[in-house]
Amino acid sequence: MPPTPEDALSLFDVAGDAPALLRPAPRSSDRLQPTFLAVFRELKPRTPLPPMEIAFYPFAHLNHTIRLRQGRVLVRLSDLLQSAPEPVMEALAQILLRKLYRHPIPEVYNARYRRFIGQRAIVAKVQLIRQIRGRKPQAVARGRHFDLEALFEDLNQRFFQGWMARPNLGWAAAVARRNLGHYDPAHNTILISRVFDTAALPRFVLEYVLYHEMLHLRFPVTQRGSRRCVHSAEFRREERRFPRWAEAEAALKRL
Length: 255
Ligand SMILES: [Zn+2]
What we know:
42% of the residues lie in helices and 16% in strands. It is an alpha/beta fold. Strands 1-2-4-3 form a four-stranded mixed sheet, with helices on one face. Strands 5-7-6 form a three-stranded mixed sheet, covered by helices on one side. A two-stranded antiparallel ribbon has the order 8-9. Zinc ion is lined by residues 1-2, 212, 216, 231.
């Protein structure tokens, strides 16, 4: 049950700023108001300036949206452009507002925007973001026989004084024996193999598998020199606190 080598920790190695990208929040972008208003003025000189809401948004792809709602112009820009220079933002404002009001888009703006997003650093970020945010929604925690959230809360009280913040929990298709359980730190998700979602196996075996994955939250992987330590001595000690540890281990070996 160790996290597989390709577990999402590698994402943290790809780019130092990955953790910040994991929990992005929509960010207002008042600094862009003048840019968008100036473009609007250029396109529609006789129309009163409409109220505009412009925000950066954590899309899974390099997307931007613009719409008109009850007289307000609503703009959502990919947060990948948060550090884009002003001329690029101006080109984007031209492109979006011209699309909204069906004006032709001069090639100079398209070219300027494309040049920016074609930069190697931006392309790499777009790929990383797609990996992180583009996943399909996780399987739900409630299985046919067991509810992982209820099990988690019970174990949380019994072994962690209830302090452990609940990660995402889901049932996963059983692919391989070593994938009975898995904790993915990049998505803060524990996946448990569906082979345990059955009345045929005793509940404590499933509890033990979930407990093991919860210990991965408690004891994050450490690096000793070039070696990654996934199951430290401390981890193994805690694991043996499980009351029917030997029985559970034996049951897993039989699977
Ligand atoms: Zn493990």
